[in-house]
Design a protein that fits this description.
The protein is an alpha+beta fold. It has one domain: Transposase IS200-like (Alpha-Beta Plaits, 2-Layer Sandwich). The chain has ten helices and four strands; from the N terminus they run βαββαβαααααααα. A four-stranded antiparallel beta sheet has the order 2-3-1-4, sandwiched between helices. The two termini are 34 Å apart.
Amino acid sequence: MARLPRLYVLGCSHHIIQRGNNRDACFFDERDYAFYLQQLQQSAKQFNVAVHAFVLMTNHVHLLVTPTTADGCSKMMQSLGRKYVRYINISYQRSGTLWEGQYKSTLVDSELYFLTVSRYIELNPVRAGMVEAPGDYPWSSFRANGMGKSIQLLTQHSCYRALGRTDAQRVLRYRSLFSDTIHTELLDAIRECANKSWVLGSDKFKSQIAVHANRRVESCGWGGDRKSLALREDQGV
């Protein structure tokens, strides 16, 4: 099946996933994680993409970003991919592909879902059983968003800034969000939307995107009322 064209709406954030080929490792040493983040910062700056949240897992990457142009994410990921693959191939005397084809991405309805997707990303190491708490994992944005550590790569999103008047208030209130679990249905929706390039948002948001996108923005099989009562309560809608 042909890949759906990527969506872009000015001001909308994107949840990006890129996996290692055949789900194999793409990070082998602490130096690899550090190099990737360094190159991500350079590529994001070059193509005017704001990075709000990230996690680097052993065999895949999650990013939550806001581009300022329609091709900003694509150019950033292409540039980053070339530099990182070259680095890995030289460092480990290997050749061939590292990533599993094109990266996956979805538009995120910031009003309802931005902070949930940010939590979803930073909780990946916890769900994988690698650590007990998100702050225990060194290669995610939680140490900035939830602990106040300075990470120059990151740009605070308006939804994050709205959590408080000062950085200390934002960190405290953001960290408090992690006391609530993300409902299973919502976890599944986040994964499916990212993997299939659907839009993650309210029905109104999806309808607005669909008018301009000239393509489907959700699965034809969802239909009807797509949020259970539990999911509505989790989102506060």
